[in-house]
Amino acid sequence: MLEGAKILIVDDSPDIIMILSDFLEFNGCEVYTAACGKEALDMLGKEDIEIVILDVQLPDINGISLIDTIKVDKPTTAVVMATGYYDPNFVIDAMKKGASDFLLKPFEFDKLLLVMMRVIRERNLLVEKESMMLNLEDKKKIEHLNRELQKKIKELTTMYHISNKFNSINIFEDIYEKMMQIVGETLDVRSCGYYVSDPETDDLVLYTGHMKDGAAPDPDWKRISLPSDFNKDDRGARKHLVRDNKVYLPLVIQGEPIGFIMTESRLNGSRTPKAVENDIFFLRLIAENASTQIENRMLYESLFESILHTLRSLIIAINKRDFYTDGHCKRVTNLSLILGERVNISEYEKDVIRVVGPVHDLGKIGIPDSILLKPEKLTDDEYLIMKSHSEYGEEIVSRFEILAKEAKIIRHHHERYDGRGYPDRLAGDMIPVCSRVIAVCDAYDAMVTDRPYRKGMEADEVLTEMARCSGSQFDPAIVQAFTEIIRDGYER
Ligand SMILES: [Fe+2]
């Protein structure tokens, strides 16, 4: 029954140690010995002792005091006290401190054996219980960690979706509408809106927003006032304010609040403070993403404006040499936008035409006056030089990386639908649609405009000529749409 049990005998009497050791080893125990308290503690530190048989009187310490130390360091180690006389007070004291039993000297071996067997059984139960408690604790910890992990995964997924949605917004989309759409999709709120200040009344006026689940809007939803204690410094510092079931958060651009997001949670009280805190976290994330996008757009637009300014100054230089180019470029741009709309080009392509139209002949800056301004027919060599203006224009514009698409449109504005144009002899749909649109308008305007050396042709006459060139020089579908525009009474 005691087979393999690790027992430590602590006694200053070598005789007692010897007798006990012999008996316990005979019963299969693994016996360790110590002659004083210090030796006992050293041994307990080295070996995984199951039972300590502890003499009350030790040379260096009282055995009762030693129980405390043993129970702190090794709570599952059982302690059996050994004493030469029975003292009820001592027994109670020892039991209170955690002793499992006590033995009277001289030892009765039968009793000793029974006590040891009982103690070892109790100790095994204690170890089992400790292990179960530890497992239970571990299980609880794991469940808690799992819940936390799930929350983190959900949070990270939501953050990823928010950032993804902002990254997929294209330049033509209304960033504020998109922002509120993302708020509506991300948060479980009754309504959300983006408001801008009415400078006259200091009220906030709804710019865009949603009522969710078909809820009826409050009558004053479209015009609200900020709570009076939401001070200016807090607004500029991107701080939020929670009032009743509403959250107010400023949208700050370059340190200034340009508007406010307001979300209203449901009134059924389902929003716990934790859920509101969660909403605020995502609301701030959305506002930060929107601010970054708006700032990027502002940067892009100012960069774009400065590039266009540079290009316009180059065009002014050409116009000073050739007055025809000035009005011609403006007319080609306007007409191309009307024609583009008629042939259903995208908003992005219209923006490309707005940039390219005025500068499509920018390359003429590299053509000598003797050729550019020559009233007579150009020689073959001169024509070759004149034709280089489309490539030269592309070369200038392509130096601005953000105008890569525009540069290509300039390059191809003299291609022909049948592939016999220049510089790349592209044919059909291989020619960018903006170039095909500009080519038609460019040719029309050139033919109807008076030049110093010839009178402009009549519109009908030009349309006949364009119909003749439809499918060879020009895209037939674009010529068709163009003819309709002129027939509808387009005024130059
Ligand atoms: Fe041209």
Largest sheet: 6 strands, antiparallel
Q: Specify the overall morphology.
A: elongated
Number of helices: 17
Q: Give the ordered list of helices and strands.
A: EHEHEHEHEHHEEEHEEEHHHHHHHHHH
Give a description of the structure.
The chain is an alpha/beta fold and 492 residues long. It is 55% helix and 13% strand. It has 17 helices and 11 strands. Strand 1 (6-10), helix 1 and strand 2 (30-34) form a beta-alpha-beta unit. Helix 9 packs antiparallel against helix 10 (347-359), helix 9 crosses helix 15 and helix 16 (459-469) runs antiparallel to helix 17 (476-487). The radius of gyration is 46 Å and the shape is elongated. The model has no long low-confidence stretch (mean pLDDT 87). The structure holds fe (ii) ion (FE2). Residues 360-361, 389, 413-414 line the site of fe (ii) ion.
Outline the secondary-structure elements.
Blueprint: E1 6-10, H1 14-26, E2 30-34, H2 37-46, E3 51-55, H3 63-73, E4 78-83, H4 88-96, E5 101-104, H5 109-167, H6 175-186, E6 191-197, E7 204-211, E8 223-224, H7 232-236, E9 241-243, E10 246-253, E11 256-264, H8 273-321, H9 323-342, H10 347-359, H11 369-372, H12 380-387, H13 389-397, H14 404-411, H15 433-448, H16 459-469, H17 476-487
Parallel strand pairs: 1-2, 1-3, 3-4, 4-5
Antiparallel strand pairs: 6-7, 6-11, 7-8, 9-10, 10-11
This protein binds fe (ii) ion.
Residues 360-361, 389, 413-414 line the site of fe (ii) ion.
